[in-house]
Amino acid sequence: MKVVISKMINSLYLGMANRLNQFIFTGVFIELILFVSFFYFNDAIEDVFRLSARYTGRISFGLYLLMFYHFINERSKGKTLQKTYLWGMVFCVLHIIHFAYLSAAVYLNDLPIVPHKIAGGFLAYLAIVIYPFYMMKINRLRIHLIYFYYVGFVMAMTFLARIRGEFEGAPQSDFHYFGVFLIACFFLYCPYVFFKTKKT
């Protein structure tokens, strides 16, 4: 019986590992295609990295929301955080690529760096990279929520800064308003689900 259970567990983790590798490969491929496309259609390398950073950032935002959704769904139902882990790792890897594009864009476009403004964002980057490796070991709901709410807060502040025109070379768009709206919805939806689950 123990052998059968062990084989089932190994098969489950092997299947999840294969899916994770496929998702990461697909994500990396898409972000490289974006870079190649911008390189082909733009003469200035500064614009290539600026646009690459912009759109890979939007991909990361989508992955954050997807990860947050699965966390709410799995944790509220007492399930193992398998899908949260899966999308968390994809988010981690693709956000590292976004960070590389963003760093190059800042350097090539001579954008000003204000230490106290980037400190919060840097902590969010560290959290995004570290959290997936430890999420399965974290039992306290509060710690998970600190991660999701802090990363979401930093993203929302970034969108608001663009709306206010505080980022040179990054004009506001409807996406920024939509992003703030979605984050607010998730911030309200999360406690609603857990409170409703606790009552039942």
Q: What's the gyration radius in Å?
A: 19 Å
Helix content: over 70%
Q: How many helix segments? A: 6
Number of strands: 0
The separation of the N and C termini measures 35 Å
Structural class: mainly alpha
SSE order, one letter for each helix or strand: HHHHHH
Described by strand count, sense and barrel closure, the largest sheet is:
none
Strand content: under 5%
Shape: globular
Mean pLDDT: 88
| Uncertain runs | 1-12
Your description of this structure?
The radius of gyration is 19 Å and the shape is globular. With 200 residues, it is mainly α. The chain is 84% helix and 0% strand. The two termini are 35 Å apart. It has helices at residues 2-41, 45-76, 82-108, 115-134, 141-163, 174-199. Mean pLDDT is 88; it is low at 1-12. The relative contact order is 0.10. α1 packs parallel to α3 (82-108), α2 (45-76) runs antiparallel to α5 (141-163) and α3 runs antiparallel to α4 (115-134).
Describe the structure concisely for a colleague.
With 200 residues, the protein is an all-alpha fold. The protein has six helices and no strands. Helix content is 84%, strand content 0%.
